[in-house]
Amino acid sequence: MSVEAKYRAASLYVGDLHEDVTEDMLFMKFNTVGPVLSIRICRDLVSSRSLGYAYVNFLQLDDAQKALDTMNFDLIKGKSIRLMWSQRDAYLRKSGIGNVFIKNLDKSIDNKTLYEHFSPFGKILSSKVMSDDKGSKGYGFVHYQDQSAADRAIEEMNGKLLKDCTIFVARFKSRKDREAELREKPSEFTNVYIKNFGDDMDDERLREIFSKYGQTLSVKVMKDATGKSKGFGFVSFDSHEAAKTAVEEMNGQDINGQTIFAGRAQNKVERQAELKEKFEQMKRERIRARQAAKLYIKNLDETIDDETLRREFSSFGSICRVKVMQEAGQSKGFGLICFFSPDAAAKAMAEMNGRILGSKPLNIALGQKH
User: Fold this and answer.
1) Structure pTM?
2) Count of other CB atoms within 10 angstroms of residue 108
3) CB atoms within 10 A of CB 56
4) 3-state DSSP call for residue 341?
5) Which of residues 341 and 267 earns the better pLDDT score?
6) What domains appear along the chain, each with residue ranges and CATH number?
7) Mean per-residue pLDDT for 149-176?
8) CA 31 to CA 28: how far, in whole Å?
9) How does DSSP classify residue 269?
10) Tens digit of pLDDT for each residue in 99-132?
11) What is d(CA 175, CA 180) in angstroms, rounded to the nearest whole number?
Protein backbone atom coordinates (compact mmCIF):
# COMPACT_ATOMS: atom_id res chain seq x y z
CA MET A 1 0.00 0.00 0.00
CA SER A 2 1.37 3.43 -0.95
CA VAL A 3 1.85 6.11 1.71
CA GLU A 4 -0.99 8.15 0.15
CA ALA A 5 -3.37 5.18 0.12
CA LYS A 6 -2.44 4.32 3.68
CA TYR A 7 -3.27 7.84 4.87
CA ARG A 8 -6.58 7.76 3.03
CA ALA A 9 -7.41 4.46 4.71
CA ALA A 10 -6.61 6.00 8.13
CA SER A 11 -9.10 8.85 7.65
CA LEU A 12 -12.30 9.09 9.70
CA TYR A 13 -15.43 11.10 9.05
CA VAL A 14 -16.76 12.82 12.19
CA GLY A 15 -20.41 13.83 11.92
CA ASP A 16 -23.11 15.47 14.05
CA LEU A 17 -20.67 18.02 15.46
CA HIS A 18 -21.79 20.93 17.60
CA GLU A 19 -21.20 24.14 15.65
CA ASP A 20 -18.79 25.43 18.32
CA VAL A 21 -16.45 22.44 18.15
CA THR A 22 -12.97 23.46 16.96
CA GLU A 23 -10.05 21.61 15.37
CA ASP A 24 -8.13 21.95 18.65
CA MET A 25 -10.91 20.19 20.56
CA LEU A 26 -10.92 17.33 18.09
CA PHE A 27 -7.13 17.10 18.13
CA MET A 28 -7.06 16.87 21.92
CA LYS A 29 -9.63 14.08 21.85
CA PHE A 30 -8.35 11.92 19.00
CA ASN A 31 -4.63 12.36 19.67
CA THR A 32 -5.12 10.32 22.84
CA VAL A 33 -5.43 7.12 20.78
CA GLY A 34 -2.52 7.81 18.43
CA PRO A 35 -0.69 10.44 16.35
CA VAL A 36 -3.03 12.62 14.29
CA LEU A 37 -1.74 13.95 10.96
CA SER A 38 -4.44 16.51 10.30
CA ILE A 39 -7.96 17.58 11.21
CA ARG A 40 -10.31 19.58 9.01
CA ILE A 41 -13.72 20.86 10.06
CA CYS A 42 -15.75 21.59 6.92
CA ARG A 43 -17.11 25.12 6.93
CA ASP A 44 -19.38 27.38 4.89
CA LEU A 45 -17.32 29.30 2.35
CA VAL A 46 -19.10 32.58 3.04
CA SER A 47 -19.82 32.58 6.79
CA SER A 48 -17.06 30.15 7.88
CA ARG A 49 -19.59 28.46 10.16
CA SER A 50 -19.12 24.75 10.78
CA LEU A 51 -21.19 22.47 8.56
CA GLY A 52 -21.34 19.92 11.36
CA TYR A 53 -18.77 17.42 10.14
CA ALA A 54 -15.01 16.97 9.93
CA TYR A 55 -12.24 14.63 8.76
CA VAL A 56 -9.53 13.26 11.06
CA ASN A 57 -6.43 11.71 9.48
CA PHE A 58 -4.38 9.37 11.65
CA LEU A 59 -0.79 8.32 11.02
CA GLN A 60 -1.63 4.66 11.67
CA LEU A 61 -4.61 2.66 10.45
CA ASP A 62 -4.80 0.80 13.77
CA ASP A 63 -5.23 4.10 15.64
CA ALA A 64 -8.10 5.12 13.37
CA GLN A 65 -9.75 1.74 14.01
CA LYS A 66 -9.27 2.15 17.77
CA ALA A 67 -10.88 5.61 17.69
CA LEU A 68 -13.81 4.21 15.69
CA ASP A 69 -14.25 1.34 18.16
CA THR A 70 -13.95 3.36 21.38
CA MET A 71 -15.12 6.90 20.62
CA ASN A 72 -18.16 6.50 18.38
CA PHE A 73 -21.16 8.36 19.86
CA ASP A 74 -19.05 10.10 22.52
CA LEU A 75 -20.33 13.50 23.65
CA ILE A 76 -18.53 16.68 22.62
CA LYS A 77 -20.16 19.93 23.68
CA GLY A 78 -23.28 17.94 24.63
CA LYS A 79 -23.76 16.33 21.20
CA SER A 80 -23.13 12.69 20.35
CA ILE A 81 -20.58 12.48 17.54
CA ARG A 82 -20.92 9.92 14.75
CA LEU A 83 -17.77 8.28 13.36
CA MET A 84 -17.30 6.29 10.20
CA TRP A 85 -14.56 5.57 7.69
CA SER A 86 -14.07 8.37 5.21
CA GLN A 87 -15.55 6.95 2.01
CA ARG A 88 -14.24 8.82 -1.01
CA ASP A 89 -15.53 6.25 -3.51
CA ALA A 90 -18.74 7.80 -4.85
CA TYR A 91 -19.85 4.51 -6.42
CA LEU A 92 -19.85 2.70 -3.08
CA ARG A 93 -21.78 5.53 -1.47
CA LYS A 94 -24.43 5.71 -4.15
CA SER A 95 -24.74 2.13 -5.39
CA GLY A 96 -26.81 0.95 -2.41
CA ILE A 97 -24.56 -2.09 -1.90
CA GLY A 98 -24.72 -3.06 1.79
CA ASN A 99 -27.15 -0.25 2.57
CA VAL A 100 -30.25 -1.00 4.67
CA PHE A 101 -33.32 1.17 5.21
CA ILE A 102 -35.19 0.98 8.53
CA LYS A 103 -38.54 2.64 9.28
CA ASN A 104 -41.19 2.74 12.03
CA LEU A 105 -38.50 3.42 14.62
CA ASP A 106 -39.54 4.46 18.10
CA LYS A 107 -38.75 8.14 18.71
CA SER A 108 -36.33 7.15 21.50
CA ILE A 109 -34.04 5.21 19.11
CA ASP A 110 -30.90 7.28 18.49
CA ASN A 111 -27.79 6.68 16.38
CA LYS A 112 -26.03 4.69 19.11
CA THR A 113 -29.02 2.46 19.82
CA LEU A 114 -29.50 1.77 16.11
CA TYR A 115 -25.81 0.91 15.76
CA GLU A 116 -25.91 -1.46 18.74
CA HIS A 117 -28.93 -3.39 17.46
CA PHE A 118 -27.56 -3.81 13.93
CA SER A 119 -23.83 -4.33 14.58
CA PRO A 120 -24.10 -8.10 15.32
CA PHE A 121 -24.70 -8.82 11.62
CA GLY A 122 -21.43 -7.42 10.26
CA LYS A 123 -19.07 -4.48 10.08
CA ILE A 124 -20.97 -1.19 9.86
CA LEU A 125 -19.52 1.64 7.79
CA SER A 126 -22.14 4.13 8.98
CA SER A 127 -25.52 4.32 10.71
CA LYS A 128 -27.87 7.24 10.98
CA VAL A 129 -31.32 7.97 12.41
CA MET A 130 -32.83 10.82 10.41
CA SER A 131 -33.99 13.72 12.54
CA ASP A 132 -35.08 17.35 12.51
CA ASP A 133 -35.61 20.05 15.12
CA LYS A 134 -38.41 17.99 16.67
CA GLY A 135 -36.27 14.86 17.04
CA SER A 136 -36.28 11.49 15.25
CA LYS A 137 -38.25 11.21 12.00
CA GLY A 138 -38.79 7.50 12.70
CA TYR A 139 -36.52 6.10 10.02
CA GLY A 140 -32.82 5.62 9.36
CA PHE A 141 -30.07 3.82 7.45
CA VAL A 142 -27.32 1.33 8.22
CA HIS A 143 -24.52 0.85 5.71
CA TYR A 144 -22.60 -2.43 5.99
CA GLN A 145 -19.20 -3.19 4.53
CA ASP A 146 -20.67 -6.02 2.43
CA GLN A 147 -24.06 -7.05 1.10
CA SER A 148 -24.13 -10.40 2.93
CA ALA A 149 -24.17 -8.59 6.28
CA ALA A 150 -27.00 -6.35 5.05
CA ASP A 151 -28.97 -9.42 3.91
CA ARG A 152 -28.55 -11.04 7.35
CA ALA A 153 -29.75 -7.87 9.06
CA ILE A 154 -32.83 -7.69 6.83
CA GLU A 155 -33.68 -11.36 7.42
CA GLU A 156 -33.27 -11.16 11.19
CA MET A 157 -34.60 -7.67 11.97
CA ASN A 158 -37.50 -7.11 9.57
CA GLY A 159 -40.75 -7.36 11.54
CA LYS A 160 -38.99 -7.48 14.91
CA LEU A 161 -40.08 -5.41 17.92
CA LEU A 162 -37.73 -2.59 18.86
CA LYS A 163 -38.89 -0.51 21.83
CA ASP A 164 -42.51 -1.69 21.31
CA CYS A 165 -42.48 -0.77 17.60
CA THR A 166 -42.51 -3.36 14.81
CA ILE A 167 -39.78 -2.16 12.48
CA PHE A 168 -39.56 -2.53 8.72
CA VAL A 169 -36.10 -3.37 7.34
CA ALA A 170 -35.27 -3.63 3.63
CA ARG A 171 -32.57 -2.95 1.09
CA PHE A 172 -32.05 0.74 0.47
CA LYS A 173 -33.48 2.04 -2.81
CA SER A 174 -32.59 5.39 -4.28
CA ARG A 175 -35.36 7.80 -5.26
CA LYS A 176 -34.52 7.09 -8.89
CA ASP A 177 -34.98 3.34 -8.36
CA ARG A 178 -38.27 3.84 -6.49
CA GLU A 179 -39.64 6.07 -9.25
CA ALA A 180 -38.59 3.52 -11.89
CA GLU A 181 -40.41 0.75 -9.99
CA LEU A 182 -43.56 2.84 -9.85
CA ARG A 183 -43.45 3.36 -13.59
CA GLU A 184 -42.84 -0.31 -14.30
CA LYS A 185 -45.10 -2.06 -11.80
CA PRO A 186 -48.41 -3.57 -12.95
CA SER A 187 -51.27 -1.09 -12.86
CA GLU A 188 -53.20 -2.82 -10.05
CA PHE A 189 -55.36 -0.28 -8.24
CA THR A 190 -58.55 -0.01 -6.21
CA ASN A 191 -58.78 3.75 -5.69
CA VAL A 192 -60.34 5.92 -8.37
CA TYR A 193 -59.89 9.68 -8.77
CA ILE A 194 -62.80 11.61 -10.31
CA LYS A 195 -62.76 15.29 -11.29
CA ASN A 196 -64.71 17.93 -13.25
CA PHE A 197 -68.14 17.02 -11.84
CA GLY A 198 -68.78 20.57 -10.62
CA ASP A 199 -70.01 21.80 -7.25
CA ASP A 200 -73.41 20.07 -7.29
CA MET A 201 -72.18 16.75 -5.92
CA ASP A 202 -72.04 15.03 -2.54
CA ASP A 203 -70.78 11.71 -1.18
CA GLU A 204 -74.09 9.89 -1.49
CA ARG A 205 -74.70 10.88 -5.10
CA LEU A 206 -71.14 9.95 -6.08
CA ARG A 207 -71.58 6.60 -4.32
CA GLU A 208 -74.82 6.02 -6.20
CA ILE A 209 -73.14 6.69 -9.55
CA PHE A 210 -70.14 4.40 -8.95
CA SER A 211 -71.56 1.60 -6.77
CA LYS A 212 -72.97 -0.20 -9.80
CA TYR A 213 -69.41 -1.22 -10.74
CA GLY A 214 -68.71 -3.03 -7.47
CA GLN A 215 -68.64 -2.72 -3.70
CA THR A 216 -67.33 0.65 -2.55
CA LEU A 217 -65.30 0.85 0.65
CA SER A 218 -65.29 4.64 0.84
CA VAL A 219 -66.51 7.62 -1.18
CA LYS A 220 -65.35 11.18 -0.62
CA VAL A 221 -66.21 14.42 -2.40
CA MET A 222 -63.60 17.04 -1.52
CA LYS A 223 -65.13 20.27 -0.19
CA ASP A 224 -63.99 23.80 0.60
CA ALA A 225 -64.32 25.62 3.92
CA THR A 226 -67.97 26.44 3.20
CA GLY A 227 -68.89 22.81 2.53
CA LYS A 228 -69.14 23.31 -1.23
CA SER A 229 -67.79 20.64 -3.58
CA LYS A 230 -64.38 21.39 -5.12
CA GLY A 231 -65.34 19.40 -8.20
CA PHE A 232 -63.26 16.30 -7.48
CA GLY A 233 -63.27 13.28 -5.22
CA PHE A 234 -62.27 9.65 -4.65
CA VAL A 235 -63.98 6.27 -4.70
CA SER A 236 -62.30 3.23 -3.14
CA PHE A 237 -63.46 -0.20 -4.35
CA ASP A 238 -62.89 -3.59 -2.76
CA SER A 239 -61.31 -5.02 -5.93
CA HIS A 240 -59.09 -3.95 -8.81
CA GLU A 241 -61.61 -5.34 -11.31
CA ALA A 242 -64.37 -3.04 -10.03
CA ALA A 243 -62.09 0.00 -10.05
CA LYS A 244 -60.82 -0.82 -13.56
CA THR A 245 -64.37 -1.22 -14.90
CA ALA A 246 -65.45 2.07 -13.29
CA VAL A 247 -62.60 3.92 -14.96
CA GLU A 248 -63.26 2.35 -18.34
CA GLU A 249 -66.99 3.07 -18.19
CA MET A 250 -67.02 6.50 -16.53
CA ASN A 251 -64.02 8.32 -17.94
CA GLY A 252 -65.32 10.88 -20.43
CA GLN A 253 -68.97 10.46 -19.40
CA ASP A 254 -71.29 13.43 -18.90
CA ILE A 255 -72.42 14.41 -15.39
CA ASN A 256 -74.38 17.61 -14.83
CA GLY A 257 -73.50 18.71 -18.36
CA GLN A 258 -69.76 18.32 -17.73
CA THR A 259 -67.34 15.73 -19.10
CA ILE A 260 -65.72 14.05 -16.12
CA PHE A 261 -62.32 12.44 -15.77
CA ALA A 262 -62.00 9.10 -13.98
CA GLY A 263 -58.63 7.43 -13.49
CA ARG A 264 -56.34 5.62 -11.12
CA ALA A 265 -55.77 7.61 -7.91
CA GLN A 266 -52.04 8.15 -7.47
CA ASN A 267 -50.24 8.20 -4.13
CA LYS A 268 -47.93 11.04 -3.15
CA VAL A 269 -44.76 9.40 -4.45
CA GLU A 270 -46.39 8.62 -7.79
CA ARG A 271 -47.68 12.19 -8.15
CA GLN A 272 -44.24 13.58 -7.32
CA ALA A 273 -42.59 11.23 -9.82
CA GLU A 274 -45.04 12.26 -12.55
CA LEU A 275 -44.62 15.97 -11.82
CA LYS A 276 -40.84 15.56 -11.81
CA GLU A 277 -40.93 13.81 -15.18
CA LYS A 278 -43.16 16.58 -16.62
CA PHE A 279 -40.82 19.23 -15.24
CA GLU A 280 -37.75 17.49 -16.68
CA GLN A 281 -39.49 17.17 -20.05
CA MET A 282 -40.37 20.89 -20.05
CA LYS A 283 -36.79 21.68 -19.08
CA ARG A 284 -35.43 19.56 -21.94
CA GLU A 285 -37.81 21.25 -24.38
CA ARG A 286 -36.75 24.71 -23.21
CA ILE A 287 -33.08 23.78 -23.63
CA ARG A 288 -33.73 22.42 -27.13
CA ALA A 289 -35.62 25.61 -28.03
CA ARG A 290 -32.79 27.80 -26.74
CA GLN A 291 -30.20 25.79 -28.66
CA ALA A 292 -32.31 25.91 -31.82
CA ALA A 293 -32.49 29.71 -31.51
CA LYS A 294 -28.71 30.14 -31.05
CA LEU A 295 -26.28 30.64 -33.94
CA TYR A 296 -22.50 30.47 -33.83
CA ILE A 297 -20.88 32.85 -36.32
CA LYS A 298 -17.34 32.05 -37.48
CA ASN A 299 -14.87 33.69 -39.87
CA LEU A 300 -15.82 37.21 -38.77
CA ASP A 301 -13.95 40.15 -40.21
CA GLU A 302 -11.96 41.87 -37.45
CA THR A 303 -13.91 45.09 -38.03
CA ILE A 304 -17.25 43.43 -37.10
CA ASP A 305 -18.45 44.30 -33.59
CA ASP A 306 -21.61 43.52 -31.57
CA GLU A 307 -23.65 46.39 -32.99
CA THR A 308 -22.74 45.59 -36.60
CA LEU A 309 -23.70 41.97 -36.12
CA ARG A 310 -27.01 42.91 -34.46
CA ARG A 311 -27.84 45.35 -37.24
CA GLU A 312 -27.15 42.79 -39.99
CA PHE A 313 -29.26 40.06 -38.38
CA SER A 314 -32.14 42.02 -36.78
CA SER A 315 -34.31 41.80 -39.88
CA PHE A 316 -34.85 38.06 -39.27
CA GLY A 317 -36.46 38.43 -35.84
CA SER A 318 -36.07 39.66 -32.27
CA ILE A 319 -32.58 39.10 -30.88
CA CYS A 320 -31.96 38.53 -27.18
CA ARG A 321 -28.16 38.44 -27.26
CA VAL A 322 -25.25 39.27 -29.55
CA LYS A 323 -21.61 38.74 -28.64
CA VAL A 324 -18.40 38.97 -30.67
CA MET A 325 -15.69 37.20 -28.70
CA GLN A 326 -12.67 39.37 -27.94
CA GLU A 327 -9.25 39.14 -26.41
CA ALA A 328 -7.31 42.23 -25.33
CA GLY A 329 -9.88 44.37 -27.13
CA GLN A 330 -9.45 42.57 -30.46
CA SER A 331 -12.02 40.33 -32.17
CA LYS A 332 -11.22 36.61 -32.03
CA GLY A 333 -13.04 36.08 -35.31
CA PHE A 334 -16.16 34.38 -33.96
CA GLY A 335 -19.28 35.14 -31.94
CA LEU A 336 -22.88 34.17 -31.31
CA ILE A 337 -26.40 35.45 -31.86
CA CYS A 338 -29.38 34.28 -29.80
CA PHE A 339 -32.85 34.83 -31.23
CA PHE A 340 -36.08 34.55 -29.26
CA SER A 341 -37.51 32.31 -31.98
CA PRO A 342 -35.96 29.13 -33.46
CA ASP A 343 -37.71 29.98 -36.74
CA ALA A 344 -35.91 33.34 -36.87
CA ALA A 345 -32.58 31.60 -36.25
CA ALA A 346 -33.25 29.07 -38.99
CA LYS A 347 -34.18 31.82 -41.46
CA ALA A 348 -31.07 33.85 -40.55
CA MET A 349 -28.85 30.82 -40.99
CA ALA A 350 -30.36 29.97 -44.38
CA GLU A 351 -29.97 33.50 -45.76
CA MET A 352 -26.74 34.67 -44.11
CA ASN A 353 -24.53 31.58 -44.22
CA GLY A 354 -21.78 32.27 -46.76
CA ARG A 355 -22.72 35.93 -47.18
CA ILE A 356 -19.74 38.29 -47.17
CA LEU A 357 -19.75 40.67 -44.22
CA GLY A 358 -16.87 43.13 -44.26
CA SER A 359 -14.29 41.22 -46.26
CA LYS A 360 -15.04 37.58 -45.28
CA PRO A 361 -17.85 35.08 -45.96
CA LEU A 362 -19.74 34.11 -42.79
CA ASN A 363 -19.65 30.54 -41.52
CA ILE A 364 -22.80 29.91 -39.45
CA ALA A 365 -23.65 26.85 -37.39
CA LEU A 366 -26.67 26.02 -35.25
CA GLY A 367 -25.99 26.19 -31.52
CA GLN A 368 -25.29 22.85 -29.84
CA LYS A 369 -25.38 21.95 -26.14
CA HIS A 370 -21.88 21.17 -24.91
Assistant:
1) 0.46
2) 12
3) 26
4) coil
5) 341
6) 3-85 (3.30.70.330), 91-172 (3.30.70.330), 191-264 (3.30.70.330), 291-366 (3.30.70.330)
7) 89
8) 6
9) H
10) 999 999 999 999 999 999 999 999 888 888 998 8
11) 9
